[in-house]
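Hi C.,

You asked whether I'd gotten around to modeling the 442-residue construct. I have! Everything is below, sequence then structure, no commentary in between.
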Amino acid sequence: MKSRYLAYLLLLLVAVSCEPKLDEFNPSAGSADFSRYVSVGNSLTSGLADAELYKAGQINSFPNLIATQFKLAGGGEFKQPLMFDDLGFGQKRVLALVQPHDYCSGDPVPDVPPTLAPVPAGGTPDPRNFTSIAAEGPFNNVGVPGAKSYHLLIPGYAALNPYFGRFASSAASTILSEAKKVNPTFFTLWIGNNDVLGYATSGGEGDVITNANLFAGALNQIIDSLTSNGANGAIANIPDVTSIPFFNTVPYNSLVLTLQAHVDGLNYLYQVLLGATDVSFSLGQNAFVIVDVSAPGGLRQLQAGEKILLSIPQDSLRCQQSGWGTRKPIPGSYVLDHNEVSNILAATEGFNATIASLAAAKGLALVDMNAKYKTLLSGLVFDGMKFNTRYITGGAFSLDGVHLSPRGNAIVANFFIEAINAKYNAQVPLVNVGDLPGIVFP
């Protein structure tokens, strides 16, 4: 009996000694100091989503998510210029069930079930959203929707931008001077998207791409100022904006013709009456027609790689009796042609070279957001959930097709944290993407 008990004891000791030991994760700032963190940028930094800056979106902004993780490694308070409700300035869109209607007449279509569509949220915004909250500052999140790189340096920009006007401490303030009020020990900087995005979302007609020298000069001044007191930081480069849902939801060749008479009529209109000899229609899927003064007859069909903007009036596109892209060529302000796409890509490449050079010169963590967005394009898995750049169903972007969803913000926060951990030998825990809300379906 004693020998049996000894055998049991030996087996127990072997089992205990062979039990795997897991290394404990101890959050650490490494060589960084997160005690006073400030985040500088544009609408992506501010938490704008669904075409509006509103309270819930701000709470789920990627800087606020990063700051929450920083608190586990010595980070301090992170104050944001919050709206007072979830309507902001009143432009918010929500996903709703909408009764289908005839695209040409606008009349409801009976006996057809409702479909999902983004619609105005409605309601009356809190009037305090339109008043100054500067007295509550300084703020750690100085992301300002609409801001370009050089806008961060313009005194009096508060008079030009109502989002900045809400929290600017004086009429002469700059976005950069507001960031400096925190006396940051650590910063994140993601600026430059609007330096190409405004051009892109206007179809290359309503804005211009920022001059490369102006961008470089502004960014150099911004980084010099943010690091002047010895602060460390992380800077993200600019993703290819033409890869986001805003430019990839309406396919260039999604005109479907089912009647031969319609095909013959369109071919006669364009090829004979208008002299657009390169325009040709057939049964089935066709490319839309756009205005192009360099083409025969000043018109041509879209080509693969060219983009239709999400802002295009959808009913005008779908009404084949008098719709755009069939009898009426789509105006250039709703299209990115090959030259415009090339302009955007070339500018993005140049801006990103500047960002990489300055990050290396100042010893900052570089977040290659351009590469990260490319992987998101093909699909990523976080916390067992799949994300991609498809509109609504992809999960990473909000209903405006440009800005991030709460889970998209969590993904971007993790991109920053990974780069920060690698650069500063820190151990900042990643955000649990699944803890953030997804797109709300009615």
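If it helps when you're writing up: Residues 338-362 form the longest helix (25 residues).

Thanks,
B.
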